[in-house]
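Problem 3 from the worked examples.
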Amino acid sequence: MTLVSMLLALIIERLAARSELWQGSRYVKSWFSLTADSKLAQVAQHPIGQYGWILLPGLLVWLLLCLIDQWLVTTLVNALLLLLAIGCWHYRQLYKQFLNAQDRNDDEAAFLAMQQIRQHSGLQLDDASYGQSLIWLNFRYYAAVLFWFLLLGAFGIITYVILRQLNQPSHSEDPQMLQLEALLQQDHEGTPAYQRLMHIADWFPARLFGIGFALVGYFSRASSALLGYFLDFTSPNEQVVIDVATAAEPIDETMLNTAEETATMVQLAKRNILFFLAFTAILTLAGWLS
């Protein structure tokens, strides 16, 4: 059931999910707007209440699926949630613009397209190359989502997507949304709850998929890079993912920000996702997953 949901979502996302209707951010923003105009905003304002506000939608869907308790319904709902979570048609369009610009040797257009990808995805590393930026985007929209679905099902998907949206730069001009974002920024410890939860949510998947990079790439160099981060709880997870991926697929510095580097990193990310799917299939055949 788990593997079937994954495959359905990935296939449909590749072939058909090309409108805003299939993008999870649309529904997360609807939840934000609903919250901003309700008593839940008061809950979100409290440092502890923020955790409950973030976890509530996932808990409600999980409870509903438990009450229905039908494997077919659960499979279809999980596939739909995965499809919405990995939906990134906006980034695909920007990536196509980037590739078209590189094909016609338009460095300025390629730079602008990649800058939009970096800004909208919330990537904080200013020195990341084009290929490294896409590796991080692949992690946020595919790898981490699949991991949390495998571990926590629908609850994991919904919670991760909410955290991902909260940690992306806001482009909203809705007064209710701006009010909610201001409330969420209030935290006695200096860091909003959603930022702490995002770091925790990315910590283990970053290292797990780092192992995948090592197995599908240059093992000795990638494993050495990964060991340096394995018990590191403070380094940015994007730095971990990018450093291990770069070690797994060494590229000469003169090739950075070129079409060759971008294609190499994208292929590495795809191999890693295929490895994870194969690992999931093995767990399913062994009876460890339903």
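Problem 4, a separate protein:
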Amino acid sequence: MTNIKVEVYPALEGDCFLICIGDRKKTNILVDGGFASTYHNYLKPRLLEMAENGEELSLVIVTHVDADHIEGIIELFKENGTAENPLIIPIKEVWHNSYRHLNFLKQKSVEELDVKEESILSGIISKSYVEPSKSRNNPNKGVSARDGSTLAALLYKEKYSWNNAFNGSAVNLNERNFISLTSEISLNLLSPDSNKLKRLEKFWLTELRKSKYDFKLNDNILFDDAYEFYLLSQKDEHQVNESKNISYQKEKTSLNSVLNKKMIYDNSVVNGSSISFILEYKDYKLLFLADSHPDIVRENIQGLVDTQGYIPFFDVIKVAHHGSHRNTSTELLSLIDSSVYLFSTNGKKNNHPNNETIARIISRKGTERRLIFNYFIENELLANEDLKKEYRFIVEFSDEFEIKVIEI
């Protein structure tokens, strides 16, 4: 018995994972929170149960600002109250990169924002609207933006320990890539780095300067709210169009035809800012890839191999970006492997998981692999019994309303 348990929550097309490590005194790590409905229907009851048993969340990791990852986390902090007097569960530390952590281009101005600049930021906030997720008993009727309702504002107001492992700066592997949570538990950062965060800041600055070319950047709290709501309201054009050219999924699919498809890499600056990491406990290794880009993950794992003789075989790999074909490359898969690949999606958006990703994972000879899904997914490759025998993989689906538990 290794005392590692990964709870995978029904998060529609999103991510929400609770990693529980240990027996008597547990270390609990929450990675993303899915949508508001994920929190209210599934996560909140579990957290209340944990709190009754004297447990806490040792770390909450918000991988990036996207509704299907952050919305449930916002709901948690709205209801949890202050760090000193939590109403749901005690939370020791939060990792979350907000505007205040993007310091590369920011020239801290001693000048206050002028009236026009304040109006621009307030306008971004007031115009933003977060679409409600569609799920049973959904308490979220749609979130209209307002001052102080972002995760950044809640963390700041309620005095949570925020990026404390990074001295209050950005979660950035160029500043610190190895963090010890306990004597036996550590996290090795794979993303983001300074370059990925700089791209995100330039993206934000470009938006501001559409309205005022010499927009002053400073630490006014309006920036945090406007930044977060702006990112939440964005649509990734490449992702929206991702499934339009996948006509072969409507026809009989051959593995070779899928493998011969040319890869188009994810270029989203928001996904590129994802916090991805290796979690290690004793001799066990879990790889959580959020929506990260495959280039930076491969580069940093290769660095571990070259400098430490690291063996990149993991007990679990959480597949990047819900199985998007733009985030799992053959180059990355030539370096890493696992007996367990975890997919988090209900399959109802962008044809996730894409056939290319499934084909790239299963087509390699070698170890037996379990492909675990937190929903039932209709897919021709996954249902092909001949492929299962030839490439030695099995498929596990979950019920729509089931919390999938993986014990390692």
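Solution to problem 4. The longest strand covers residues 185-191. Residues 194-211 form the longest helix (18 residues).
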